[in-house]
Amino acid sequence: MTSFTRIADEGSPSIIVHPDHKIAKINDNIYGGFTEHMGRCIYGGIYDPGNPLSDENGFRKDVIDAMKDLNVPVVRYPGGNFVATYHWLDGVGPRENRPKRPELAWLGLEPNTFGTDEFMKWCEIVGTEPYLCLNFGTGTLDEALGWLEYCNSTQDTYYANLRRKNGREEPYNVKYWALGNECWGPWQVAQLTKEDYAKKAYQWAKALKLLDPSIVLILCGETGYSSWDYYVLKECVTWSVHGLGGDRTKSLIDMHSIHVYTADKEHLANATAPRGAERAIQMASALIDLARIENGVPETVPRQTICFDEWNVWDPIRAPGELGAEEKYTLSDALAVSVFLNGFIRQAKDLGMANIAQSINVISPLMTNKDGIVKQTIWWPLLLFSKYMRGHSVAVNVRAPEYTGRTNPAWIRATIETPYLDVSASISDDGHMSLAVANLNEEKAFDVKVEGVKKGEVKVYTVDGENVDVANTADEQKVGIKESSWDGVGKFRFGKHSFTLLRWKA
Ligand code: AHR
To answer: Cα(313) to centroid of ligand 1, in Å?
Structure first.
């Protein structure tokens, strides 16, 4: 258990870590990425033919290197909202035959010069697994089955042969497939009611699993705490729901997708907003249990996990999607991202995957220009988490003052605490403890008694800056990682508006 006890503002905070109390395995896939045909994510982001920084495939080498540094295990593609009018066949085969199409999610033009085979090749170079999202807008089940066959089949069938004809003999073995994206959203091409979506998702899921039973299917949820989430889970959680037969001992859907973006103009409302995302995981997880209980799903059917396949700080008014959503992230946003990630570690038991939206240029930690790459403030905590917060999550008890002002959304205040010290801990498979601490207070450093830390050499990684509004640009990197060490004796000072990762051999 991770617990928080509020103390007076002038009290002495403490953190107790229990290295021998593992809570749950942290799924590596929580460090997933997302590349959508949107703004400069694909074109000018990962794919930039003609640029001297690109390889013979037109892939930006600096982007590939950054993805490798981040050790991104899985990348979602091709949308997002984009997918609602995407026909995958437009993006395969000789480039000169590929049609240009109007693009209705972001009101652009899709040249289709980058498609399935290019994405798969890019994933292989990066060393990451592909995760494909199906077109639930203008797409058909036939098309979806064709895409699955193209990617995964070894048989002598039409789409498998088309893949061979396009130069790829071996199947791509794409494991993760999403049953649409944000189908509930009024901005969606062919928005669906929850009833219509559930019917369609159930039928598509059945057919897709008949073609390839090894795939992991991801249901389109909403925020994790809506009636849509409850309804679609209840209708689709297992084969047997509609009494249509199927094998009750197998799951029909394996994961439930949720999306949460946060943002606020004021630092503390901004930095504590991701506490709502953590609450969303808890609520979605309860809905999964409820759907299983109501449907009498046998315990032998593995429990569905949550696929948090879009998360980040994003204010769509400040950085509109139609203009490429190029957010400029501040130190406050980096602290918000730390709180998101701490929440993922604390809720590791329920989280099967999470994908930062997005990987390049669009609401992203990484921004390309023609001469290189800028690592925004949010890159740095993300990098530290991905490097060190793997293995198992570990129990922590935190005593600290709490921020008691306005939250965004307001319901956070009533449902989950908002400590100034936001903490999570993990132990890696080789026995390294990592303690992640975000001090959200913009005025006050905290001297904290850290119990459970081993005296000796504790490595210290700090992300901070002059004030919460600082940002990185191509000319100046104001926020990065500072490395130092601590002997583990006495109190540790967590500086104001900072993120710190302490690491020691347990
Ligand atoms: O990530 C940007 C957009 O946000 C995605 O296309 C969509 O799914 C969400 O609304």
So the answer is: 12
